[in-house]
Structures are given as structure tokens and as C-alpha cells.
Batch of 4 targets.
Target 1
Amino acid sequence: MDVKKLILLVGALLVAAVTAVMAKNMFSGASAPQAAATPVVPAGPEVLVATRSLPVGTIIDAEALRCFRDRRHPCPGYHDATRRADA
């Protein structure tokens, strides 16, 4: 056998052995930690929704719109037309 072929064969066996050891360590390592569930906080965009039909040319006032991210979490700091001022 030629010396060049023998060196290539030994090099290939060395690379294969290193790859096998790395794969064994990767697959036999500790499993990933389990994630705990956390409460969902609405992080979506704030959406303005019309409270009544708004035909073309309607002047929009505070009672015409309301803001919310989720039905359970209205946007803070914005007038909600469904609440009365005296309540």
C-alpha cells in the first residue's frame, strides 16, 4: 500500500472516531430543562374599535371608538365609551 493512501486512511479513521465521540456525547447529555407555564400577558397591538356604525363623513368623537388588546384587558389610559362617567 502506498504511504499517501495509508496516511489518508488513518486521517479518515481519526476524523470518524472524533465525530463518533462527539455524537455520543451530544446524544447522551442531559436533557433540556422543562419550561414552566406562565400566565399570558397580552402583548399585541392596541386596537381602536368603532362602537357604532360610522358612515362616510362622520365626525369621530370619544364615544365613537374604544381601545382594547383583549376583551379581558382594555387599554389603559384611553376613554372607554362603554363605561359611564357617573359610574
Target 2
Amino acid sequence: MNYQLYAKDKRLCEENTSPNRIFTLMSAEKRKNTSLPEEFKPYFWDVEFGALTYEKYPRFIAERLLNFGDERAVKWLLSLEGRSGIKKIVQTSRNLNAKTRNYWQVMLS
């Protein structure tokens, strides 16, 4: 199948580009220069909030929002990472507390 019809960006239109690869590249584009909404500042009390971007610190930001974030924060994270990305973070993170890890494993299964 030729996936060129589905890709808007010319870099994604390489021959033999699978849909999964296109999704990965598009997700990376979404994350590019994504600064955090001001309402998330209370979750990052211990760091310089203005210096945080999702492009530079995706894992740190995701873990913090999964641990302490509200529904709005998690929806924002889902829009960037997707369900599978969050599942991967939950499975490999050392910074999620046990209750949070268990909760997200149940919710994402």
C-alpha cells in the first residue's frame, strides 16, 4: 500500500513508510517546542518553569503530570503522547509512585 496519500509532510512521504512510522514522526512534530500551559506551574514547584518544554524534558514532564496532575493535565499529555506513549512511560518509569503506577496500569489496560 502506498501511504504517500495520507502524509501531509514531504518527509513522511518516503516510499515504504508505514503508518506507525508516520504516527511516530507526527507525534514528534507535535512535541516540538511545546511549552507548558501556565496552569501547570504548581506541578513544577522545584524547577524553573519557564525553561521547561516538552521537547527537552518529555519524560520528566509526563511523570510529574501522571503523579500529580488533574484531569486537564492528563488530557493535555494524552494529546501529545497518545495512549500507547503513556503506557510505555508507566511501564518503564522509576519516578511514578506505586499507587500511581498501579492506577495507570489498570486504566490503560
Target 3
Amino acid sequence: MTMEEVFRRFVLGENHAQMPSSPQLVQNFAKEGVRWLKAGMPILPQEVAQERLAICKSCEFYVGERCSKCGCQMRVKTTLATSACPIGKWGQATEKMVPIETQTNPPAS
């Protein structure tokens, strides 16, 4: 057993032992973040995010608020219009799921 496996199993608990490795978690997070930033940081309406999260919660890979396939925090990932389930249970936003525009600066008056 590697040191990472020992740490995950005995320090973080059994649920974390099922998650992707730390380097894979970083890679997954970076890919999701870059995709989201390039798209203009769109988030979905709350109803759509809740539907996605409900699908996740019924999935066998949902472990302690996270997906054991990608390692993502699902309360966050389900709100991002550019995200998709790693096993295809839900995909990126479609025209029916119009993303909410994010504003960093208020409109000029």
C-alpha cells in the first residue's frame, strides 16, 4: 500500500479511498475550471442544478457529496453550465438550459 493509499484510507476515511488519486483530482479540477472560464463562467438556473444533483445523489458513485469517478464536489459541479457527468447521466447545458449570465461589473449608467 502506498503512502497516499494509507493517508486516504486511515486519515481521510474509507470514502476517500474510492476517489481518484490526488494528481487526477487536480487534473480534473483544472480541466473543468479552464472550460468554464473560457465559456465566460456561465452558471445554470437553480432548478437545473437541483435536477442534476438529484441524479447524482441516486448514483452509485455519489460518495459524501462527491463523485467517486471524477472526485468533484457535486454541489458545485452541477451548477456549472460547461460541466458534464463523467459517466453520461447528464451533459453540458443545452439551449433548454439557458445559462445565467454572470456579471463582474455593474452596467454603466
Target 4
Amino acid sequence: MDAKATLAFRWQTTHNRRHGSQWGYGPDYDLPDNLVRLHQRALGAKRSAAFREFALGLEALHRFVEHAPLTRVHACVFGVLAMESEAIDPRH
């Protein structure tokens, strides 16, 4: 292993330990074997959550622009924050 590869491996190992993930994005992200593994991941739950968060954010903006009471705007904003705090399995 050359110095660059060793440094990348150490960084990736440290990153994985800190973040509890085996799916880190390091310098070897686009190697063919890694791309195959990444394409096989089921991302439906993450994608669905992202769409719902986005929709709530748009609704908050719409309410704000329409001069809705701030409590109605904040309801959407707090909904987005609550959704972001939900645990989603990092391996999927």
C-alpha cells in the first residue's frame, strides 16, 4: 500500500468509527466494486423521508409568503426538524 492509500485507509477507518458507518465516502468511492455495492443499497426510506421534508419546507415557505400566522409556519418548520431527528439505518 502506498502512502496515499494508507492515509486514505486510516482516514476512512477513523471516520467509520466516529460515525458508525461502513458506507463512508472516501477516495475509493468510485471504484467499480464499491459502485456495485452502493447501487444495491435500498434507499427507499431515505428518499421518502427526504421528499416529505422537502414538501414540508415548501409548505412553510408558502405559508410565510401568504402571511399566514407564524404558528402555522412554525408547525411546518418543527415538522421538518422532527423528521430530521428520526433515526434511519445508515447502512440503507
